[in-house]
């Protein structure tokens, strides 16, 4: 049933019959039936139009005043908007309610799974892969040099700004020193350094033996007679380059020598750590780091940046490299996806998500949002929204006002009508009381 149409027909018929009955009352004055019908119709008119005008007075007049009256909604629009926003935030969209809704329905996990699924489908879709790779290569060809320059400029500017702030330089030095000290204090690292040094020494033995041999002969030649005797002894005992190299190799490989070498390494590392922690070294480093950063930045801009741009362009111009770009890109995407999934499923990730979701939700100002939207509505739009959202209930109130007015008008016709009207009121009250008790008992049992 369309309540609005019923209300319209009721209003029209009520007015029409009231006018007709009023005319008959003038011509047939004293007719009890006409008078009775007219009284009932007038009571219905009063009941209906009292509610009709009350509802209209909520919105009318929209501008100005009529007999000193202005519409309640237009007049108090700002207060209504603020009150509505506060009510919605407190009772409907309170941050705690939103957060509870999110966690009760596992929206975070569901969202992550959907994102992962979309990424997987994109990775395994040949059409999307081709499109993405084509876009990436095209973008790198067009904007690659510019991107490299932007990255370089940003890095250079960041380093220069850091160099201008002593506290940042000090932080960088402390971080570097601590990492270096930590590395050197690890016994395994020192042993590895020792092994690498021994490897280098063994590789350089021929050169070192040759240098020692030449140095020894040069030294003996400068010692006249004693030197000639020394050279003769050297030749007799085959004390040549090969012999020197063999002697050096035995020295390096000897276990006792190795232990002594590691002890020497420990002493050297201890001395290096002491030097790194000294005030003089710190002052020297912090004083020079600005110059180092500036010099390295200038060198990189003049040499590394042009070379990098040239290599990038050459690499992109070769179609054989495009397949490699595709593999590396989607490998990186897959790696990021897995790392992200691992992080989200970890306790740390869950805590991070929870903290940030709660922070985000609490930062949503529903009151201000609703207030802003309501104030942006035209008064006609606001009236339509309220009437539409009441689902025709205001129209029902108008209609029932007319019906109840007519029922009350029966009492004005004759006092005996008070009996059925009173009975109707009693029945209504008993039905209301029974319904109230029906829902109060379960609430008390809880």
Automatic annotation (TrEMBL):
UniProt keyword terms in alphabetical order: Membrane, Transmembrane, Transmembrane helix
Top-rank taxon, per record: Bacteria
GO cellular-component term (any): endomembrane system
Taxonomic path: Bacteria, Pseudomonadati, Spirochaetota, Spirochaetia, Leptospirales
Protein name (record): DUF445 domain-containing protein
Localization: Endomembrane system
Sequence similarity: Belongs to the UPF0754 family.
Transmembrane segments: 12-28, 34-55, 391-408, 414-431
Organism: Leptospira levettii
Predominant place of localization: membrane
């Amino acid at each position: 049933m369309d309540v609005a149409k019923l209300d319209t027909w009721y209003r029209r018929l009520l007015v029409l019959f009231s006018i007709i009955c009023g005319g008959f009352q003038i011509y047939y004055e004293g007719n009890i039936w006409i008078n009775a019908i007219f009284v009932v119709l007038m009571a219905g008119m009063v009941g209906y139009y009292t509610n009709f005008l009350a509802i209209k007075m909520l919105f009318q007049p929209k501008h100005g005043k009529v007999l000193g009256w202005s519409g309640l909604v237009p007049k108090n629009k700002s207060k209504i908007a603020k009150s509505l926003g506060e009510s919605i935030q407190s009772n409907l969209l309170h941050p705690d309610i939103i957060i509870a809704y999110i966690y009760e329905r596992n929206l975070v996990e569901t969202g992550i799974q959907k994102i992962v699924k979309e990424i997987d489908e994109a990775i395994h879709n040949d059409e999307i892969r081709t499109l993405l790779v084509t876009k990436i290569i095209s973008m790198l060809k067009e904007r690659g040099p510019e991107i490299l320059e932007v990255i370089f400029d940003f890095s250079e500017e960041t380093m220069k700004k850091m160099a201008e702030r002593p506290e940042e330089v000090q932080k960088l030095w402390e971080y570097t020193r601590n990492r270096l000290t930590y590395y050197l204090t690890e016994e395994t690292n020192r042993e590895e350094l020792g092994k690498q040094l021994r490897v280098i020494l063994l590789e350089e033995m021929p050169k070192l033996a040759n240098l020692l041999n030449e140095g020894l002969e040069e030294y003996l030649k400068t010692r006249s007679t004693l030197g000639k005797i020394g050279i003769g002894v050297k030749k007799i005992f085959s004390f040549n380059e090969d012999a020197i190299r063999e002697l050096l190799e035995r020295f390096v490989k000897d276990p006792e020598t190795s232990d002594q070498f590691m002890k020497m390494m420990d002493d050297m590392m201890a001395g290096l750590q002491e030097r790194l922690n000294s005030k003089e070294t710190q002052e020297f480093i912090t004083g020079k780091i600005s110059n180092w950063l500036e010099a390295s930045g200038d060198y990189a801009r003049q040499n590394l940046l042009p070379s990098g741009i040239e290599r990038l362009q050459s690499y992109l111009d070769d179609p054989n490299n495009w397949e490699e770009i595709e593999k590396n890109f989607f490998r990186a995407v897959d790696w990021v996806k897995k790392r992200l999934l691992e992080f989200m499923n970890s306790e740390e990730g869950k805590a991070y998500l929870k903290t940030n979701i709660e922070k985000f939700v609490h930062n949503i100002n529903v009151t201000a949002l609703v207030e802003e939207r309501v104030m942006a509505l035209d008064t006609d739009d606001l009236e339509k929204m309220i009437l539409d959202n009441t689902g025709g209930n205001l129209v029902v109130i108008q209609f029932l006002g007319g019906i109840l007015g007519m029922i009350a008008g029966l009492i004005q016709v004759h006092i005996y009508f008070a009996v059925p009207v009173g009975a109707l009121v009693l029945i209504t009250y008993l039905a209301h009381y029974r319904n109230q008790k029906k829902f109060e008992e379960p609430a008390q049992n809880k």
